């Protein structure tokens, strides 16, 4: 169930590089991107998913870039399936790919399925709740559009607005990021962030094995191992976290699993 993008869309015009940037970030023809695949794993989000998709469909992108929206319904038990099936009629000018999994497997498995169907040059991960703001797409995509990065992570901890919620969640996120950095030799500030953007060619080199929330430390470990070394950027993003009463799903048990995942993928593939 797909609609076709406007065939009259012009090719993107990347920002001209300075002489210093040309030496540090040489741009090749293959580096020019024309389309972003926005992959959204969805589980029991009937209350928010259509509003979220409206924000995603209307979010600004770097000039000349088109979008496709890939929704993977992870066997939701509420009315999420019918809400997703209505999307092509609600947004006829957007290209959708919508998949309904017969069995619930978790976020990692849903993302893995979505990546397989991505037709863009770049893949951006978006959660189906309203914790992250699609207005941040331009800043997330710009380092790749300008051929300065191969991977871009958002960060909730470098200066953008955020809802004040759980102290121990923040402490846990910072601990997991620091622990991951010790094993990857990266200096990320927010490994567990939802917003991650990859060149499709990078994802094609990675075999994701974790089915659930272990995706975040696994993919971080694997991009750190790739050679030639990838250019990884981080940009601040807004964050409007949910309480457990509002539907937040991750728990302390996922933190324990993340520690084990970090250790596992430091030594295994």
Brief write-up:
With 269 residues, the protein is of the alpha/beta class. Helices cover 35% and strands 15% of the residues.
Give an overview in words:
The structure is a single chain. By secondary structure, this protein is of the alpha/beta class. The protein has a domain at 32-163 and 193-207 and 224-243: Alpha-Beta Complex (Spore Coat Polysaccharide Biosynthesis Protein SpsA, Chain A). The protein is 35% helix and 15% strand. It is built from ten helices and seven strands. A seven-stranded mixed sheet has the order 3-2-1-4-6-5-7, with helices on both faces. Helix 2 links the parallel strand 1 and strand 2 (66-73). The two termini are 35 Å apart. The model is unreliable at 2-12 and 25-29 (pLDDT under 50).
Give me the secondary-structure topology.
Blueprint: H1 19-24, E1 35-42, H2 49-58, E2 66-73, H3 80-85, H4 87-90, E3 95-100, H5 107-116, E4 122-125, H6 137-145, E5 151-155, H7 167-184, E6 196-199, H8 200-203, H9 215-225, E7 232-236, H10 252-267
Parallel strand pairs: 1-2, 1-4, 2-3, 5-7
Antiparallel strand pairs: 4-6, 5-6
